[in-house]
Every structure is written in C-alpha cells, then in structure tokens.
Amino acid sequence: MVASPDILNALRELTNAKQLDRAELQGLLQDGILAALAKKYGPTVNAEVDIDDETGQIRITLLYTVVAEVTDAAREISLDEARFEDEEFQVGDILERPVEFAEFGRAAVQAAKQRIIQRVREGERTRIKDEFSTKVGELLSGEVQQIERGKLVVMLNRFREAEAIIPYREQNHREHYHQGEPIRAVLKRVEDTPKGPRLILSRSDALFVQALFRLEVPEIQQNIVEIRAAAREVGSRTKIAVFSRDDSVDPVGACVGLKGARVQAVVNELGGERIDIVPWSADPERFAKLALAPAKVARVFSDAGSRTIQAIVDDDQLSLAIGRNGQNVRLASELTGWKIDLYSSREWLEKGGEERLFGAPEVEEEVPDVRLGDIAGIDPAIVAVLEDAGYRTLNDIIDLERDDFLRLPGIAPQEADRLIGIIDELTTEEEDESGQASADESASAGD
C-alpha cells in the first residue's frame, strides 16, 4: 500500500526545502501517520508503521490486545470478536489489522501533514540553536532580505532558515543598505522567541571590529595574538588592545600588516572609521598610558579602591589626550575599565601635585648596597678573590666590565659572565616608558 498523495507531496516539498536525509524523512512520515491514526481511532491507538526503503511502500498495522472485557476500544478487542477472525485467539494475544490509506478521512490526513510540519519546525529550531549558540562573536554573511521599521532582516548564506535581524540600534547609521545587497555582521546574541531562536546581529558593536580583525589577521586565528579589550564609538573611532603569546610576534604589527594592509581592510569595511591599536598590559597604569595614544603621557597615578587613574600630560598634549568632544579619553577609559582623569602639567602643579614633572632630568634611584657574600649565585671562592682586590659590596663592582673581572687572578671567562649576569639582574629595572615606544608605533588607521 502507498501513502496518501497529499502526505507524499507535502513530504517531497519539505525534503527539498529543508534538505532532510532519509532517516529524518522516515521518522517524520512515521510520526505523521501515527498522528493521523490517533485522529481517526483515538489517542491511545497502538500501531506499527513500516516503510520499505527500496520501493517506498508503507505498511500500516493496527495492534489490538485481546481482552475478556474491553475498556479502551482504541487498543483492545474482546475475545469473542477476535475469534470471529481466528478461533485460536486467547486473552493476551495481539490481533493485527492492516489499514489502507483510503480509510483515512480528510481530517486525519490533515493531522498527519500538520504533525510532520510541526516536527520539521522543531528540528529546525533545535538545529539553529545548536549551530549558533556557540558562535557569538563570529562574523556572519548574507544579504538584506527586507527592511522593516528600521531593522534589517538578513538571509544568511549558510543557514537560510535562521531568522536573523540587525536592529536599528545595532546598525552603523552612516551606512545605508537596500534589499538584496550583501552584508556582513557579527552575531551578538541568540534570543528565544515563541517562533524559535532569533539571531541578533550587529555592525555597531566592538565585537564586529574584533571579528573583522580575526578574519584579516592569521595570528589571531592561530591564537598567537589575542584582542584583550576593545572600545568603540560607531562610525567614528575604535580602540583595541592586543596581546601576543609569542614574544617573537609583535601584536600591534601583526594587526597592522605589511604597509598597513590588514588594518586598512578593516577600516574599509567600517567606512573609514579610525582604529587605534595599542599593546595590552596587566599593569593598569602602563595600560592607561598606552590607551591614551596617540597622546604622550608623562606620569600616571592609580587608586585601586576607586579604580581611578590620574594621568598627567604636557600642555601641548592635553587636547590630543582628550580628543574631539572628549572621545579619546572616553574610549581609553572604556578600554582599560578604569576612570581616567586628565591633567596638564600646569594644572597638576597648581593643584599641589608633585615636583615639576617636565624639563627636569630624572634622578636615578640609588641601588641598595649589599655585601658580595650575601648575594646568591656568587661562589665563595670568587667572593674571596674580589675582596682581595678591594671589592666588598655590590656598589663596588656595579660599574665593572667583563674585561675588568678577567684581569683578576682566579676568575675564568664563565665566572666573569656569571658576575655580569648577576649585576644586570640586580640593577636592571623595567623602564617606565618601555610600553610607550610600542604605543607610539601603534596603528591609528583611518585618518
């Protein structure tokens, strides 16, 4: 026997539109037929539905339990009635009764079609949720299907069944799109609605800029370079802070690319929006200095309790540090997560700040004097040689070169190298401006 042409036609359309495989198709068909049987014979009906993979033939068999007294006519049959068909039946046996599709009424056929459509929709919703719930922050592409009440309805290239929109507040209002135009956006979140999952896309969020850099920079794709923080004022300016897990890879240079090709590709997608790329630092004071680029910051003071940074810049750097309408300092504050208060050198001195910060030579801190015998790593025999030569403390040997040590009897080249290394380790301090050079070289694209 074969199924109703209405059901088969509906299945054929669904198979083509939804790209169902054979197993899914059979499951849907069985479920739909069981729904039709329930509509005709009752919700407790017991039946078997067999589908022949080769011929497509469908066999439907109702199963009735033989009982002494019937309490559920949808799945039970009396012993007397069963024996009309076969005298051998006993209580507890199962009577099988084949069903032809011709016996199905229009309501039952409609119930089967509705159940199949419902199952397809449920499976579609599950697939959409499974596909996109882990893709927040990724770049998606499609075309503008419709523009309604300010929002853009997008048909995605790879998952056309998914409902995807770009709300008005997630758009770059300097851009204008028309129906049928290609568009790229970042997946910001997945919303559950009564009609199923809805994908909320954005072209205004800082996530969009990060997704574009992931597309353009292989080192980010390979997890060598990471974007640790981002701040954006859509259509105007973005700041990103980058970090490299490999000391041999410059994170800023990787994002800028040869002759600025990589950052320029991102700028073009953003319609000329300016992008500042700065190195990330775990030290909030150093990070604040870098985040205020392209302005040069002289000193910073932090208050961890209030998460506030006081940054002092020279008078000619103040307007650059503030930026147009306060944009530069505002984005730097968002990037670092700290409130940044800016002062010119004059303002800082007038409010009773420290000694003059500009134009005066820096005073090097005196290295604490330590007896050579108390320094770990120097062999006692070498200490004795140095003391015999008149060198008894760290300050005594701090300015000696390798050749000076080699002139002393009993000190071999490897011992001289070890002494130079110990001196360097004890006296080298991280320069305050070590990150500023990187900041000066950071990209400010889109000017």
From TrEMBL:
Name of encoding gene: nusA
Keyword Transmembrane helix in annotation: no
Primary residence: cytoplasm
PROSITE patterns found in the cross-reference section: KH_TYPE_1, S1
Stretches assigned to the S1 motif domain: 137-204
Annotated source species: Gemmatirosa kalamazoonensis
Assembly: Monomer. Binds directly to the core enzyme of the DNA-dependent RNA polymerase and to nascent RNA.
Record key words, sorted: Cytoplasm, RNA-binding, Transcription, Transcription antitermination, Transcription regulation, Transcription termination
UniProt cross-references to SUPFAM superfamilies, sorted A to Z: Nucleic acid-binding proteins, Prokaryotic type KH domain (KH-domain type II), Rad51 N-terminal domain-like, Transcription factor NusA, N-terminal domain
Name recorded for this polypeptide: Transcription termination/antitermination protein NusA
Pfam families: HHH_5 (PF14520), KH_NusA_1st (PF13184), KH_NusA_2nd (PF26594), NusA_N (PF08529)
